[in-house]
Specification:
Mean pLDDT: 91
Radius of gyration: 20 Å
GO cellular component, one term: outer membrane-bounded periplasmic space
Number of helices: 14
CATH class of the largest domain: Alpha Beta
CATH architecture of the largest domain: 3-Layer(aba) Sandwich
Helix content: 40-55%
Shape: globular
Family: Belongs to the bacterial solute-binding protein 1 family.
Structural class: alpha/beta
Protein name: Iron deficiency-induced protein A
Number of domains: 2
Number of strands: 10
Keywords: Iron, Metal-binding, Signal
GO molecular function: metal ion binding
Strand content: 5-15%
CATH topology of the largest domain: D-Maltodextrin-Binding Protein, domain 2
């Protein structure tokens, strides 16, 4: 049996899920607080019943695989390109083209065949404590391996999907030989064993446990905008650097499931999420960058300033993830 650690059915409907029901069924890893307003808006706009099942991404992939053609799921929504590519490779998604989505979402943030579409962006940024490190010593991801930062870098687990995605992006940019040399230097420069989440890296900076950290933009923005006074104070004590050779961005996105009972309805929902109002909600509720041009970012993200994103298609980067995992494994297990 599939072990479901956390199953949350958004309480728009409380009836059991059945593939025969005329409703849109979504499997998603995004939190209810983010998704509920979007689901309610879609239901009000279209008059369509929506059922949302929340769990961890790997559990959802396992569930889809085990359910096979009996799955009631129409759509998979998750928060990393690596997960979407894994779902595609496992045969859990179907190619579904949409003229509207292709016109709204830049090519680098969607699968060329239509297996998945990016819906919002988050950026992998560098943070530092002013006064403890000269600004000129930190300009790009490459600087994390500099001898000037020996014992001064904080990161979460290198095997975490956020860091795997960053290393996959660097493999596409630099090649394996340079990435291995770089990662060896980063590991040597760690102030402590990798631990905690992204927000814990910011807190470690404020405590003086390290001078530089690698963090996703939306975690930092959430701390800047937090109801927790301590988190706001901590976040305001550090400064950010946008890597000058191109910032690695990742997506939250979705794809129509392979055995979707209602594939057109699933595409309609994705098109709804790419609309101006939905994109604005993504930006305001979770401090993620809209994937559609012309939609304003949150005031908190405006404080972080503009950056130039890596131009390489995420589909290309995602296909480096197995190599990235091997590089991390090899170097993390070196005495």
């Amino acid at each position: 049996m599939i072990r479901l650690c956390i199953i949350l059915i958004v309480t728009l409907f409380v009836t059991p899920i059945s593939a025969s029901d005329e409703s849109l069924v979504i499997y998603g890893s995004r939190q209810q607080a983010l998704m509920a307003p979007l689901l309610q808006a879609y239901q009000a706009s279209r008059g369509v019943a929506v059922r949302y099942v929340q769990d961890k991404s790997d559990t959802l992939l396992q569930r889809l695989a085990e359910e096979g053609d009996a799955s009631p799921a129409d759509l998979l929504l998750t928060a990393d390109i690596g997960v979407l590519e894994a779902a595609r490779e496992m045969g859990l998604l179907q190619a579904k083209q949409s003229q509207l989505l292709s016109s709204l979402i830049p090519a680098e943030y969607r699968d060329p065949q239509g297996f998945w579409y990016g819906l919002s962006l988050r950026a992998r940024m560098l943070l530092y404590v002013p006064g403890r490190i000269p600004r000129f010593e930190l300009r790009d991801y490459a600087d994390l391996s500099s001898s000037a930062l020996e014992g001064r870098v904080c990161m979460r687990d290198l095997k975490h999907v956020y860091n795997q995605s960053l290393i996959a992006a660097l493999l596409a940019r630099w090649g394996e030989k340079r990435v291995r040399a770089w990662l060896s230097g980063v590991i040597f420069n760690l102030a402590r064993p990798p631990q905690g989440g992204d927000r814990d890296q910011v807190r470690a900076l404020a405590k003086g446990e390290c001078d530089v950290a690698v963090v996703n933009s939306y975690y930092f923005a959430m701390m800047l905008d937090s109801d927790n006074e301590r988190d706001r104070e901590v976040a305001n004590r550090v400064s950010r650097v946008w890597p000058e050779t191109g910032v690695h961005v990742n997506i939250s996105g979705g794809g129509v499931t392979h055995y979707s009972p209602h594939p057109q309805l699933a595409i309609d929902f994705l098109e709804f999420l790419a609309g101006f109002d939905s994109q604005r909600l993504f930006a305001e509720l979770n401090h993620e960058y809209p994937v559609v041009a012309g939609v304003p970012v949150s005031h908190t993200l405006m404080r972080l300033g503009a950056f130039e994103a890596d131009f390489r298609p995420l589909a290309l980067i995602a296909r480096q993830r197995e190599k990235a995992s091997k590089v991390i494994h090899d170097l993390s297990n070196t005495d």
